[in-house]
Amino acid sequence: MQSKAISLTERDMQRRFDIGQVLGFVQDHSVYFFFAAVIAFFAVTIGDNGFLSVTNFFNIARTTAMISIVAFAMTFVIASGELDLSVGSVCALSALTCGMAIEAGTGWFVAVILALLSGLVIGAVNGFFVTRIRIPSFLVTLGMLQLIRGVDMRVTYTNPVAIADKTFNSLFGSGKLYGIPSLIIWSVVFALIGHVVLKYTTFGRQVLATGGNRVAAEYSGVRTSNVKFCVFMISGVAAALAGLLYSGMMQTARFNYGEGLELSAIAAVILGGTSLFGGKASIIGTFAGALMIGTINNGLIIMGLDVSEQMIVAGAIIILAVAFARKPSH
Amino acid sequence: MVDRDPILEMRNVEKSFGAIPVLRKVNFTLRRGEVHALMGGNGAGKSTLMKILTGVYLKDSGSISIESRPVAIASPNDAKRAGIAMIFQEFSLVPTLTVAQNIFLNREPRKGSFFLNDRAARKMARAVLQDLGEDLDPDTPVSELSAGMMQMVEIAKALSQNAKILIMDEPTASLSEHETRTLFKIVRRLKAAGISIVYISHRMAEIFELCDRVTVLRDGEIKITQDCKNLTIPELVDHMLGSSSASAFAWQDRQIVFSDAPVLKVSNVCLPPRVRDVSFDVHPGEIVGLAGLMGSGRTEIAEAIFGRRAPTSGAIAIDGKPIARQRDAIAAGVALVPEDRRRMGLVLDHSVQSNIMLPNLDLFRRGAFVSDGNAADVVRKMIDRFQIKTDSPAKVSRLLSGGNQQKIVISKWLARKPRLLILDEPTIGVDIGAKGEITTQIRELAKAGTAILIISSELEELLAVSDRLLILHDGRIVQDIQRRDVQSEEELHHAVQGHLIDRTRHATAV
After folding, report:
1. How much is the pTM?
2. What pLDDT score was predicted for residue B302?
3. Backbone angles phi, psi at B69, to 5 degrees
4. Fewer CB near the last or first residue (10 Å), C or N of chain B?
5. Got the DSSP string for A87-127?
6. What DSSP state is assigned to residue B248?
7. Chain B nearest C-alpha distance from A16 (Å)
8. Residue B390 φ/ψ region, left for φ over 0, alpha for ψ in the -120 to 50 degree band, beta for the rest
9. How many Å apart are CA B429 and CA B457, to the nearest integer?
10. A-B Cβ pairs (cutoff 8 Å, strict)
11. Highest-confidence range of A108-122, B152-166, B190-204, B222-236, by mean pLDDT?
């Protein structure tokens, strides 16, 4: 104990040694414990009302796909020490772009490309203001959230755009592969890609270094501005993909898709053990965080709470869970 | 003078910022395998010279050659390529990544062009660390390392990039005694391996122990370059200050008997996990030095007196009033100059004036408003009294040197006329000129009746100012001894490692 004490820093010493490591492990993985607790709670209270069924779990995973995918990209954004609040309205912009393009007769493929491009462009604009003009991302993306939501409302005068393309609706919404809903496939595929990129590629390492200590990363030759720029573009494209999934699932594009999506996504990321200060991140944790949020929403609906009550309970649970997952800041 | 086997030669290097010359015809030579101390007060030009060498600044004129070949250093990358690496004073590692990940940051061994080869990185990291004689697990996150180990990782990082010249800026400033020993061992090992080191430090004892030669810069000019063994500490101080002003560092027995009731009374205080059953008093006008190794519980005791930590047992009282919270301590007249001034002592982005005003807002209030006008006088007085070198009270404190920042931290409490001033490592990273001024101020305050508790790793500093010394070892006060009963720094040095000072020997001598 003594020799160990000498090799630790002051800050570490202030933590308690005896249970420190165990507590650290539990905190790092708290999302899994919370998730298990949430499932156990609903299993006991509403297990008989259909909560405990394969269909319901598929349902949870399916409806959580959009949060998950946006949250995967958000993990990179937060790991790099930034924040993207604009994802909610970018998601609707992409949905509308796609819907209107299909309506105009471009075919689904071109429509999808245009929609994803819209997300890429907004992400690049965010990245430009953050890295070149040096405005905090919180402000840039907050403004962008508002601005794009305005565009969403303006382009169709808040009217919904129906999407009749069967291929599109199947691919991005109601389709299945070997009995697995396409939305679940999308989210699992992107979880894997995100995990591999974050943990096993130079880009992932550069993102973590940028968020962990930007100056040190710069001195090691990491071009941190470029890293951040890329991360915003990834976030824009991910939000656009989420918009496509909403459209496919509803077979309609609406201006109000993704309202509050930024908060759910950020909550999922933080619940998953990613540090809000950057430098430390886990995609698998984010996936668990998103699924947990989806499960809470699903359980509360089955319990028969109305929307206002759901919001109150879900918000409170998220605050508690994040409070527990919080690590002492650097 | 012709140097044998020079690895680095800087000839007639000049640099000005605007109209102000910072370096004037500087000639600096580093031999292969030598440890060369670079000394000088803040503003002497040390860091400018090193920034030129590491490509952060461009020199106005002059030449640099490495291994007798002229080199152009226009960017940090040029410096890296030339084999020059800086071990930073403020650590430049990514705390959330592991040791191996940091050593190979952005030069990671790869599989293909995208995928990392972490296994290879681990293996290579282990090898570099073993070359340094350190058996450190490359998978440890850097945030879990002590300051000393972080420095090791930085050195390993530099060596893995084939650095031939290492620049160490105040490398021992945040190290414990034990870690300093380890660092010295490593420096000697590097030296034996032919690595050349520029060693910047304010600590005289280190320079004489470790360095082969010393160069002193003052006002942008080289004053001397000489073998350490041909110099004494007073000579070196004279070269740095330009005149004989070593008196600030000599102890005088004030011959005062402190009989008043104590200002501070600490009784049987325990602060887990380290501090156990600590009791002592400090009297009005008395300067008490708290000597102990880093990690012996010094800072915890200071924070407890300031009400920031609650003891699990025991009591702390100021003038008989118990201290439970920070509010009590401030109300009772306790002032703390914390160890980490940049983080805890200053709002770095605020002006000198607002920093000095911060603990005194109640004194400068006019109705519900803070009156800058009322404060201006007090602030001006403090700036004069401490000779804080700033263009104006409105200057942002981040832009001041370490010594001047520390003067702000001390002066901000003085407007309250504190009963007890606690100074935790007051001269870390402070140059010798400012150090002398701070020492003088501490004595002045004591003379005016303020009780002073001073914590320092620099034993020579404690010996210079204290009337009485408390020796802290392993969380206990093992000895409470008058300064006059301590004969030498060596004695105190042994005492903080648990070998008590024999005072009977001196009692007969006095």
Report:
1. 0.74
2. 93
3. -110, 130
4. N
5. HHHHHHHHHHHHHHHHHTT--HHHHHHHHHHHHHHHHHHHH
6. G
7. 8
8. beta
9. 12
10. 90
11. A108-122
ipTM of the complex: 0.76
Q: Which residues contact B341 (CB under 8 A, 6 or more apart)?
A: B402, B405, B406, B409
- Distance CA(B294)–CA(B283), nearest Å, equals 25
- B-chain residues near A219 (CB < 8 A): 76, 92
Backbone angles phi, psi at A186, to 5 degrees: -55, -50
DSSP character at residue B325: S
Domains along chain A? 29-325 (1.10.3470)
Record: contact A205-B108, CB cut-off 8 A: yes
Mean pLDDT of chain B: 86
Report in angstroms the alpha-carbon separations of A31 from A193, A258, A274: 21, 24, 11
- Kindly tell me if the per-residue pLDDT of A328 is higher than 60: no
Burial class (CB in 10 A: 0-12, 13-18, 19+), B489: middle
For residues B139 and B99, the answer to whether their CB atoms sit within 8 Å is: yes
Q: CA-CA distance, B389 to B412, in Å (whole number)?
A: 15
Residue A145 CA to residue A147 CA, distance in Å, equals 6
- Give the pLDDT of residue B391: 84
**Cβ distance B425 to B455 under 8 Å?**
yes
b/e code B150-170 from CB counts within 10 Å (16+ = b): bbbbbbbbbbbeebbbbbbbb
Q: What share of chain A is helix, strand, coil (3-state, %, to 5)?
A: 75, 5, 20
Determine, for residues A6 and B77 on separate chains, whether the beta-carbon distance falls below 8 Å.
no
Indicate the residue of B77, B116, B145 with minimum beta-carbon distance to A200: B116
Total residues belonging to chain A: 330
Write the secondary structure of B116-150 as one string of H (helix), E (strand) and C (coil): ECHHHHHHHHHHHHHHCCCCCCCCCEHHHCCHHHH
Q: Which of B326, B46, B338 is nearest to B202 (CA)?
A: B46
Taking only the tens place, the pLDDT of each residue in B438-471 is 888 899 899 989 999 999 888 888 888 999 999 9
- Specify the pairing of strand B321-322 against strand B313-318: antiparallel
Residues of A in contact with B91 (CB under 8 A): 216
Length of chain B: 510
Of residues A32, A53, A8, A28, the one with CA closest to residue A302: A53
Contact A279/B77, CB-based, under 8 Å? no
- The answer on pLDDT for B1 being more than 60 is no
Instruction: With a cut of 70, say whether residue B487 has pLDDT above it.
Output: yes
Instruction: Find, among B432, B348, B416, the residue nearest to B382 by Cα.
Output: B416
In sequence order, the 6+-apart residues with CB closer than 8 A to the CB of B496 are B177, B291, B292, B293, B296, B459, B471, B472, B473
Q: What gap in Å lies between CA A197 and CA A218, rounded to an integer?
A: 21
Q: Which are the contacts of A71, defined by CB distance < 8 A and separation ≥ 6? A: A264, A265, A266, A268, A269, A272, A286, A287, A289, A290
Write down the pLDDT at residue B505: 53
Residue B217 to residue B37: CA distance in whole angstroms: 11
b or e along A128-142 (b: 16 or more beta carbons within 10 Å of the residue's beta carbon)? ebbbeeeeebeebbb
Residue B318, C-beta contacts closer than 8 angstroms, at least 6 positions apart: B263, B264, B265, B329, B332, B333, B334, B419, B420
d(CA B178, CA B172): 11
Q: Provide the residue type at B179 as one letter.
A: E
Q: Provide the pLDDT confidence category of residue B242 given band limits of 50, 70 and 90.
A: low
What pLDDT sits at residue B277?
92
Alpha carbons B349 and B355: distance in angstroms, whole number: 9
Integer distance in angstroms from the first to the last C-alpha of chain A?
24
